């Protein structure tokens, strides 16, 4: 009966990366699907704005919002102490970085829903009502240290709020998400706290530590064998490590230690640029940051000219000789 509407709960998992994001959909009956993006599985962590509208696709005369994740995390940590959760979330919603990240994630969710309904052969052409559980990763781990514990709780709460706001944005009647629609969603949430409730699964929007999510994936693979391991993830934003023991049975493992450090490849690039600028300005040299565009239209750390002279322009004088002399003295 093609007129019958069936309800189907799917889990949508988002790996919100510094350079690119990845999306997986889990169907308990059919397994996992990797969501495609024009013959790729990567979604550059950049969103484009033209006027009051946003899109994942670069358009003529559009403004690119890059480093979406890095800017969001920096903003989260810059907010006042995490004492009043409700006040904290309101301040978070008012932050430009959170708004941009919410719109970006909402566009990923819209793309996923459209992909499942029209392009995934398992569901296309069927009269299915999709109900979604959404999960997003965040770069932190539980800790006993009070400062690290507060940072963990701050990030966990922020990313759970991010995925909830993003999902409601994705459900807007008009698929064109604007600043006005974002304001309406935030206002509706503040007036009606029950908007998050779903009787079948009250924890439908979940934030999970990225490094632990990777660990769970590894121990469930067919090639996982018993033994002690160290997992190292060198990302663009962070360097994540975890040591663990994998038991004989599936899903049986013990974690010894885990750590997340903000020294990813892209962050190191930005630090190097800022540090050079600071030193050169102290020497009284008239330098101005010029900026370097990535080769692949993402926020990746592969740049066209990975040398000092590509970072700067100098008024009136040639920069090359001064930079070469400076670099030899580092």
Question: Keywords, please?
Answer:
three-stranded antiparallel β-sheet; 8 helices; alpha+beta; six-stranded mixed β-sheet; 14 strands; 36% helix; 330 residues
Low-confidence stretches: 289-320
Largest sheet features: 6 strands, mixed
Task: Identify the quaternary structure here.
Answer: single chain
What proportion strand? Answer: 15-25%
Give average pLDDT, whole number. Answer: 77
Helix and strand sequence: EEEEEEEHHHEHHEHEEEHEEH
Please tell me what the overall shape is.
globular
- Separate helix tally: 8
Using DSSP, what is the number of strands? 14
Query: Termini separation (Å)?
Result: 74 Å
Gyration radius, in Å = 22 Å
Structure classification: alpha+beta
Structure description:
It contains eight helices and 14 strands. With 330 residues, it is an alpha+beta fold. The strands form four sheets. Strands 1, 2, 3, 4, 8 and 9 form a six-stranded mixed beta sheet that branches. A three-stranded antiparallel beta sheet has the order 6-5-7. It starts with 5 loop residues before the first strand and ends with a helix.
Topology:
Blueprint: E1 6-15, E2 20-27, E3 31-34, E4 43-44, E5 47-50, E6 53-55, E7 63-65, H1 68-78, H2 85-94, H3 96-118, E8 128-138, H4 146-170, H5 179-191, E9 205-209, H6 210-219, E10 227-234, E11 239-246, E12 253-261, H7 265-282, E13 287-289, E14 312-314, H8 320-328
Parallel strand pairs: 1-8, 8-9
Antiparallel strand pairs: 1-2, 2-3, 2-4, 5-6, 5-7, 10-11, 11-12, 13-14
